[in-house]
Amino acid sequence: MADPQVLPSPMVVVHKMAELWASGDLQKHLIDTAIRVAWAFSLAMILGGVLGYLMGRNLQLNAWLDPWLIVFLNLPALVLIVLCYLWIGLNEIAAILAVTLNKLPMVMTLIREGAKSASRELRDLAYVFKLSTFARIRHIILPELLPHIVAAARAGLSVIWKIVLVVEFLGRGTGIGRQIHTQFSIFNVTGVLAYALSFVAFILLIEFLIMQPLERYAARWRHNA
Amino acid sequence: MLDVNVQGKTFGKQQILGPCQLTLQAGQRVCLLGPSGIGKSTLLRIIAGLDKSYDGQVNRPDTIAFMFQGPNLLEWRNCYQNLMIFHPKSTQADAHNALELVGLGDKGQHFPRQLSLGQQRRLALARTFLSHADLVLLDEPFTSLDPALKADMLELTRNLLDQSGATLVHVTHDETEAEILNAEAIRMHGKPATLQSP
């Protein structure tokens, strides 16, 4: 049998989780992490969506931004995180910006491909029938991009969950990443596992309550054939 | 109604269209005939205002309807919405009447993927004629259909044209379509292409 200090039993970990929950620590840090995830996710989806769409529709803009996109796609997450903390300081803005910048290139790439493959005929029909800009965005552009938006959201969210913990680990005073850092520094494997598994449970909750219903709603017309 | 005076159209260094003049009165129907690749669709796109990089001038009416070779429907919207989105002033009753005219009266709540190819074409036809546009432009919408469906669609189109009184410019390489639609055949020929009345 393994040393309980290296690999504690599931019951010990569950007990620790219950203990952290009862003290309120778990909820507090989960909420702090979730807020950072929500900010970074929203910023990356909005900025990446707009920039990716414009790159997909405008050859010149694409030619200008594409090299930068490749640089940011291949830049190690750690480098961006450290640079954000060094340039902006150890604060929330730097933390959220670091996560956002790590996710942004992936969103831009996926949305750009969606914009490139959009139907020219539908755009032409919208022009001939004089659809308003709002109607074009609502009824043509967004629905055409939706599979790509969902793919970007899913892939991006999985990246953000991972990076936000590193960001907290390196430079924040709260959050699950910070708590894992604290437990690591005192070699408390039970504590590390308790926080990590709570975080995984939280991710699964988001997956089943938000992501999967959203995907089903977005694809409902596909299943009506 | 429609006054087309195109002096030329080039793609890169290649001149596709030469001088093309076409004047149509309200209710007049013409078919642009010619082999594939001669520039019929290019001229139609210029008439529709979709292509602006040409030499010349086109005076067109305010309300135009366009139909492509494919149905080009909004697959994520139902049949009613497919009509009403492109015709915002139409009510659901108008959309229902339009669907009735093309034999889809009971399909209003269906999504395009729930329709057969023939029904999708009918829906596209309903969209083309719903708002009673002054000018209807058809870009080979009956190509690649089987003979029975093609005959059915042509008859339906002729009936809708008779009811609406719209002016028609129809691009095709099949001369019989001009006869069925009671349209004057105008051939495109040469390189760069020009228009020649029969």
Automatic annotation (TrEMBL), chain B:
SUPFAM superfamilies: P-loop containing nucleoside triphosphate hydrolases. Residues 1-198 form the ABC transporter domain. InterPro entries: AAA+_ATPase, ABC_transporter-like_ATP-bd, ABC_transporter-like_CS, ABC_transporter_ATP-bind, P-loop_NTPase. Keywords: ATP-binding, Nucleotide-binding, Transport. Signal peptide: none annotated. SMART domains: AAA. The keyword Nuclease does not apply. Pfam families: ABC_tran. GO terms for molecular function: ATP binding; ATP hydrolysis activity. Belongs to the ABC transporter superfamily. This is ABC transporter ATP-binding protein. It comes from Leucothrix pacifica.
